[in-house]
Amino acid sequence: MKRRAVVLLSGGLDSATTLAIARQRGFAPHTLSFDYGQRHRCELDAARRVATRLNSVEHKLVRIDLRAIGGSALTEEIAVPKDRPLDAGIPVTYVPARNTIFLSIALAWAEVLGSQDIFIGVNALDYSGYPDCRPGYLKAFQVMADQATQAGAEGRQRLTVHAPLIDMGKAEIIRQGVGLGVDYALTHSCYDPGADCGPCGRCDSCRLRRAGFREAGLVDPLAYPAETR
Question: pTM for the full model?
Answer without folding.
Answer: 0.94
